[in-house]
């Protein structure tokens, strides 16, 4: 498990790094001290250790088993702390070696990133955190597009991404080996989107997980790698095609078989004809024990036959074994590839899983993508829901695009199709729906459209006035998931993702994007605004809000988080004065730490609240309440007893102490519990799937949430339908 600086609920807040430090301080000073001299069944408990190669001591590992965790109240509290903070997004529990690929991508906040095989999303979460490394930038220029081929696993991916509350993440559902070229509007013309960073963590045989995954011992055969090699090579090839020149792609597997690793990289390098090179990362991640990539290997069939060269393979076996599986024989070519720059992580070196990583740099376009510049069409000028159509450019502006070579007829046909889709788009400007049903997976879910608010939407005017939003607020980035009827939730995406959405709605199946920033309140209109603030988006909105902000002391925060609807008389006199003349409705509650009181919480907190006639309450989800109380030194958990009836009693007491206040939270938490159960099952499954599972193999484990609660209970309208629990990567 690891603590990430920007993985907190307020991942866009300037205080996210201070939150991470507070969590780390809490771990060291409270939980680690309790475990220091603890003995269970006569044996001393092994203390958690920091991963020496992970920056800033933000990743730790422990060897405590689930059985031991139940045998001690101290260990149980520690376990509950980890679970609760994970649900908040403050801590990620993850296989240690699977943290390596995102670190080697060297992500900056301005990078456009593609995660090709993203589910269940632990590496995607790391990428999002890296985008928000600069806490002074509320909206980074970069974004993450997280893709997975399995529709069901996409919702598990959404669940992971939701914890981080970023407006810069989009989850899509495509076959990674044929993921479409996306287009963006650059100064009025369409250009192909190339990514600065690509994570290519491909499906693999998973033999590197043999320490934790007993199924590998039962089911492993050499045939697994032979079957996957072609798919892995196709995905990696598609990745480098979409990589920008000078960009970096990390290819990784949790396998140690060279057929899935060096053979794929060597084949990719050979057909790139110098367009790609392996980066030397030997100086990166100091402290990480690693082995160099290998240059010689043999290929073996399931029946035990070995082959050193392609020419030795009998014709009857050439459908199972392909030429790209063999090492390069030309010594000069082999030396130029620098395969020793690949990383092999062996399980026994630092008590981890086995892992393979290769970092590729793109120096020039791929040889099959080189083509002459072509004239681009001018895009229609868009303003909110209105559209001013611009004529085709005669200026001859040119841009070299990298796409698979097409014949003139095919290119003309493609251009015509692009024009047709533009025409359709202009009919319903600002509406980004799913692709036509014939392009959707047969068993996939139909997604709600993404509808951007027009610039002059009267809905926004009351919001702007009520909260005194700054003129710099990017209102064009607000969207809903409802094309008709009342808008119940408002979400926000970054400007760059808005560009992607508007220009690719016909070719891209978007599962989820954006964070919830406002929710409709049934009684809100009588108080001047029909929408109240949503906690998950408050750290994004806060820099733009100039009204209805109440500064509170730490004692007031404790009251807000432990009592359901406390009377104003319970708060400090300063707080009572501030809210005395304030109109009823949604408010922002802000706590700023006092440097002169080092024993108090030393990181700022921003909460959504509601001011009534005689009371003041916080609209904060349960796990986030627990997090803040824990950071303030409040013991929020009671040790569970071994008897089951005592366990249920303790749960009831916690539920009573920390009431549900977030609108629709009951349904959301039911969905969340189901996802948590799935994650527990996944943790015991194979890390990488030998063969990508289909929807037909999935058994329904979750009942659909009633349609009437669809809009009221979060942006992920289909999250309650997660069903795939097998073959998910670490």
Q: What is the element layout, followed by pairings?
A:
Blueprint: E1 2-3, H1 16-35, E2 39-40, E3 43-44, E4 49-50, E5 60-61, H2 66-69, H3 73-88, E6 91-92, H4 100-104, E7 112-115, H5 122-131, E8 143-147, H6 151-162, E9 169-172, E10 183-186, E11 189-192, E12 195-201, H7 214-219, H8 222-241, E13 243-253, H9 262-272, E14 276-278, E15 291-292, E16 299-300, E17 306-307, H10 331-337, E18 343-345, H11 347-350, E19 355-362, E20 374-375, E21 381-383, E22 386-388, E23 398-399, H12 408-427, E24 431-432, E25 450-452, H13 458-467, E26 478-480, E27 489-492, H14 495-503, E28 510-513, E29 515-520, E30 531-533, H15 538-541, E31 549-551, H16 554-562, H17 573-580, E32 585-591, E33 605-611, E34 616-618, H18 622-631, H19 644-657, H20 665-683
Parallel strand pairs: 7-8, 7-12, 8-9, 12-13, 31-32
Antiparallel strand pairs: 1-6, 2-3, 4-5, 9-28, 10-11, 13-19, 14-19, 15-18, 16-17, 18-19, 20-23, 21-22, 24-25, 25-26, 26-27, 27-29, 29-30, 32-33, 33-34
Strand content: 15-25%
CA distance, first residue to last residue: 12 Å
SSE-based structural type: alpha+beta
Report mean pLDDT, rounded to a whole number.
Answer: 78
As a percent range, the share of helical residues equals 25-40%
In short:
With 730 residues, the chain is α+β, with helices and mostly antiparallel strands.
What does this structure look like?
This protein has 730 residues and is an alpha+beta fold. The chain is built from 20 helices and 34 strands. Among the domains are: 1-93, no CATH class; 548-635, no CATH class. 30% of the residues lie in helices and 17% in strands. Strands 7, 8, 9, 12, 13, 14, 15, 18, 19 and 28 form a ten-stranded mixed β-sheet that branches. A hairpin with a 2-residue loop joins strand 10 and strand 11 (189-192). The longest helix has 20 residues, at 16-35.
């Amino acid at each position: 498990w690891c603590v990430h600086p920007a993985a907190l609920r307020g991942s866009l807040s300037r205080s996210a790094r201070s939150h991470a430090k507070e969590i780390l301080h809490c771990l060291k000073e409270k939980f680690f001290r309790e475990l220091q001299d603890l003995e269970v069944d006569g044996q001393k408990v092994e203390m958690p250790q920091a991963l020496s190669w992970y920056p800033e001591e933000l990743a730790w590992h422990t060897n405590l088993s689930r059985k031991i965790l139940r045998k001690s109240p101290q260990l149980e509290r520690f376990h509950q702390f980890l679970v609760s903070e994970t649900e908040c997004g403050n801590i990620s529990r993850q296989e240690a070696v699977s943290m390596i690929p995102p670190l080697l991508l060297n992500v900056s906040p301005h990078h456009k990133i593609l995660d090709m095989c993203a589910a269940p999303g632990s590496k995607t979460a790391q990428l999002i955190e890296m985008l928000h490394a600069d806490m002074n930038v509320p909206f980074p220029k970069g974004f993450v597009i997280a893709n997975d081929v399995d529709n069901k696993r996409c919702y598990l991916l959404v669940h992971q991404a939701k914890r981080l509350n970023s407006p810069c993440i989009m989850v899509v559902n495509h076959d990674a080996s044929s993921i479409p070229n996306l287009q963006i509007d650059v100064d009025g013309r369409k250009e192909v989107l190339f990514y600065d960073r690509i994570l290519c963590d491909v499906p693999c045989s998973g033999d590197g997980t043999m320490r934790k995954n007993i199924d590998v011992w039962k089911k492993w055969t050499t045939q697994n790698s032979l079957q996957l090699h072609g798919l892995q090579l196709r995905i990696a090839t598609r990745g480098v095609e979409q990589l920008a020149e000078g960009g970096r792609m990390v290819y990784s597997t949790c396998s140690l078989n060279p057929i899935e690793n060096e053979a794929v990289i060597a084949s990719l390098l050979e057909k790139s004809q110098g367009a790609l090179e392996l980066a030397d990362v030997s100086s990166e991640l100091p402290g990480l024990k690693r082995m160099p990539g290998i240059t010689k290997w043999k290929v073996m069939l399931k029946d035990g036959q070995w082959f050193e060269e392609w020419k030795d393979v009998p014709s009857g076996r050439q459908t199972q074994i392909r030429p790209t599986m063999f090492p390069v024989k030309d010594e000069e070519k082999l030396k130029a590839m620098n395969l020793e720059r690949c990383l092999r992580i062996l399980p026994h070196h630092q008590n981890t899983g086995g892992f393979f990583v290769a970092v590729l740099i793109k120096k020039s376009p791929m040889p099959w993508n080189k083509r002459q510049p072509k004239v681009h069409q001018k895009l229609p000028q868009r303003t909110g829901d209105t559209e001013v159509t611009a004529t085709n450019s005669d200026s001859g502006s040119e841009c070299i695009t990298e796409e698979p070579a097409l014949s003139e007829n095919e290119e003309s046909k493609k251009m015509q199709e692009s024009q047709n889709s533009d025409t359709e788009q202009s009919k319903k400007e600002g509406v980004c729906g799913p692709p036509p049903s014939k392009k959707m997976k047969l068993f996939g879910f139909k997604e709600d459209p993404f509808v951007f608010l027009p610039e002059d939407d009267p809905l926004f005017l009351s919001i702007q006035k009520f909260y005194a939003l700054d003129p710099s607020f990017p209102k064009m980035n607000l969207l809903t998931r409802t094309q008709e009827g009342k808008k119940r939730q408002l979400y926000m995406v970054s400007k760059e993702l808005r560009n992607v959405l508007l220009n690719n709605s016909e070719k891209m199946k978007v599962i989820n994007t954006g964070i919830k920033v406002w929710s409709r309140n049934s009684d809100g209109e009588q108080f001047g605004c029909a929408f109240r603030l949503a906690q998950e988006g408050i750290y994004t909105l806060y820099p733009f809000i100039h009204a209805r902000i109440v500064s509170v002391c730490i004692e007031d925060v404790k009251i807000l988080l432990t009592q359901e609807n406390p009377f104003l008389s319970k708060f400090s006199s300063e707080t009572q004065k501030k809210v005395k003349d304030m109109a009823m409705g949604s408010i922002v509650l802000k706590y700023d730490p006092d440097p002169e009181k080092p024993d108090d919480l030393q990181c700022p907190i921003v909460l959504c609240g509601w001011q009534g006639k005689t009371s003041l309450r916080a609209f904060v989800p349960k796990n986030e309440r627990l997090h803040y109380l824990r950071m303030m030194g409040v013991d929020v958990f009671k040790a569970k007893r071994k008897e089951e009836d005592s366990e249920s009693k303790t749960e009831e007491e916690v539920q009573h102490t920390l009431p549900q206040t977030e609108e629709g939270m009951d349904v959301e938490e039911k969905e969340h519990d189901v996802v948590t159960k799935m994650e527990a099952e996944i943790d015991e499954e194979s890390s990488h799937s030998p063969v990508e599972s289909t929807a037909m193999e999935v058994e329904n484990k979750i009942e659909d949430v009633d349609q009437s609660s669809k809009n009221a209970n979060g942006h992920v309208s289909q999250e309650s339908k997660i069903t795939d629990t097998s073959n998910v990567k670490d």
